[in-house]
Specification:
315 residues; alpha/beta; Rossmann fold; 2 domains; four-stranded parallel β-sheet; 11 strands; 38% helix
Length: 315
């Protein structure tokens, strides 16, 4: 949820050419004009798949990254609450779970649901990008339960993805923090960073959409990552400072409050304490995020999720 440090001390993390893109519209196996790219899309149609009838043995679980930040946890739960108000066709049981750093974890929730008679679960990842958590960690956690309960059918829905509404919201966060950006300002868009090449490309395209929304010249713009592969935050900041901007407006493209958002200002000051760094807030528990999440949940409940085999076969 917020890209915090894991117990091992590492960091966990996750194309949108322009604002005309619409998430997940596909034509004949190729990305249609205005779609997110194939590597990000999968079945991520923006609520276009009709939801199947929810039976008494069905459940939906919203899965957050997890954070030790109480503020970040509240943001996650409030976003889920708003999404539930916006969506329709919910099954009798709707729960929340976390990938790491906070309880309840996904395996515990799935085991509890099975004990209560649930046999079909749609997981809705509250994640920005389809990277390691979505492709590897979450399926592994699911299999740890379904191996012992082959009658439990679990599907993993799409991530939030490269949705132009989220890029617009990030640009609004920049303007809320800095007011109108001036020609002498610079813009630094910061991502969590991860090892997935497709997710890295998607982040760069999202950052470019944010730049255009903010009206900043390309030469006064940079991207950096807080961990994982990509241009490190500090190196990107140093490159921007070579242009001697009057201010550097920093947009963390992160969902909720957490370790990375809290330590970002200190890391920027370590680059140059004299620079006026203007740091925007994360996307947060905004109705825009909730609307996109409700649409992704609708996709998952409409058989748009990725089925996870119950044991011996691979995903």
């Amino acid at each position: 949820m917020t890209g915090e440090k894991t117990q091992s001390g590492g960091m966990r993390g996750d194309r949108m050419p322009d604002d005309r893109m619409r998430s997940g519209q596909m034509m004949g196996g190729r990305s249609a004009a205005g779609s997110i790219p194939l590597c990000e899309a999968g079945p991520d149609a923006a609520g276009a798949v009709p939801a199947r009838e929810a039976g008494p043995d069905a459940a939906v679980v919203f899965v957050g990254h997890g954070t030790r930040s109480e503020a970040g946890c509240r943001m996650f739960l409030e976003t889920v609450r708003l999404a539930r108000e916006m969506g329709t066709g919910w099954p009798p049981v709707v729960e929340t779970a976390y990938l790491e750093l906070r309880e309840p974890g996904v395996p515990a929730v799935l085991a509890s649901l099975h004990a209560r008679g649930v046999r079909r679960v749609d997981l809705v990842p509250v994640l920005l990008f389809a990277a390691g958590h979505h492709k590897m960690d979450l399926p592994a956690q699911v299999r740890s339960v379904t191996q012992g309960h082959p009658d439990l059918v679990v599907r993993i829905g799409p991530v939030l993805g490269a949705d132009p509404r989220l890029a617009a919201l990030a640009a609004r966060r920049a303007q809320e923090a800095a007011g109108s950006l001036r020609p002498e300002d610079a813009l630094l868009v910061v991502g969590r960073g991860n090892r997935d090449a497709c997710a890295r490309r998607t982040f760069l395209d999202v950052a470019e959409a944010i730049r255009r929304r903010c009206g900043v010249a390309r030469e006064s713009f940079a991207t950096g990552v807080l961990a994982g592969d990509g241009d490190p935050l500090e190196e990107a900041a140093v490159r921007l400072l070579q242009r001697r901007p009057q201010r550097v407006v920093v947009v963390p493209y992160l969902l909720f409050d957490g370790y990375l958002t809290r330590t970002l200002p200190e890391r920027l000051r370590s680059v140059d304490a004299a620079v006026p760094w203007v740091v925007a807030g994360p996307l947060g528990a905004d109705p825009v995020v909730a609307r996109v999440l409700a649409e992704r949940a609708g996709v998952a409940m409409g058989y748009g999720g990725r089925p996870i085999p119950s044991g011996r076969s691979a995903v």
